[in-house]
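Regression test case RT-17, inverse folding.

Input:
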């Protein structure tokens, strides 16, 4: 027994598939396989609506190839983002190097200057 479980829709699909096709496809006769192929419509979902369908042709190596172009229509517009609250400005701090300051006489910070 597997520790994974199927959701109800998957179980219903597998049960319906087993009911409609009790014999594996390679074991079917040609007439049974054709009848099973016609019966595949129950598996297909509803077609997605499109704005326009255009039939045209393209040139292939053996001549013209028919094409059907489905135009889904305009893309959905992105939602406008809410404006952000203004950020608080941090004051600029100027740091000065310590090198220009003279060391205290006989201090241990600069061994070269130590007396």
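Golden output:
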């Amino acid at each position: 027994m597997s520790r994974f479980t199927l959701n109800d829709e998957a179980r219903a699909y597998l049960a319906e598939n087993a009911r409609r096709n009790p014999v594996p496809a390679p074991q079917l006769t040609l007439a049974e396989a054709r009848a099973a192929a016609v019966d595949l419509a129950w598996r297909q979902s509803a077609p997605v609506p499109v704005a326009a369908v255009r039939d045209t042709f393209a040139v292939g190596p053996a001549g013209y190839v028919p094409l059907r172009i489905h135009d889904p229509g305009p893309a959905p517009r992105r939602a406008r983002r809410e404006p952000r609250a203004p950020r608080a400005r941090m004051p600029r701090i100027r740091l000065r190097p310590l090198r220009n300051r003279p060391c205290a006489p006989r201090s241990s910070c600069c061994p070269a200057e130590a007396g």
